Amino acid sequence: MQRTERSNNLAQIAEALANGDTQAAEQQAQHEFAWKPSESIRQGIPAARALKVFLRDRFVDRYSGSRLVFPGALLAVGRLLPECFPIHPTWKAGRSHDMFWELWPAVDHVHPVARGGAHDESNFVTTSTINNVAKGNALLAEIGWVLLPCPGSEETWDGLIGWFRRITAAQSQLLNDRQIGAWNSALRKATF
After folding, report:
1. 20 to 30 A from 155, CA-CA: which of 6, 7, 52, 141?
2. What's the confidence (pLDDT) of residue 38?
């Protein structure tokens, strides 16, 4: 959780504005709340590229250490048990099971692109969707998070990829699902 005392600074700016001293308010705003728009445009990360990051990190959340699950496997579980694990097409809150937010891996930019970070693998880590949303464009130091080391070969968790391969071999109709098929394709590309 980030704690801030900057409301006092904003109160001084507001008071200068109330007193008609726009110049003083603007100077203090530029000093206390300096802001520069990002020059970079956020690029998407294709599933195959994201999967390479998840595989590198062995489906372990690099902020919490939690084990995450290959998206194709999560979707397959949801399709096979739709009453237990409903998922809304746009992940609408209250219509999708919390499991998807908790266990779905996401690629996070450790140093946010909006704050000058690189859009490449050196700045990518695996985290859960819920942690990715919580972090937003914050720097780790601002929110008190730490980056855990990349798991070594002793971490044998595969994100249920082995199960995914078995279940789609046994129930090949799952691959007709557009999203499951796309993750299966990404898996083939990422693992050759």
Report:
1. 141
2. 55
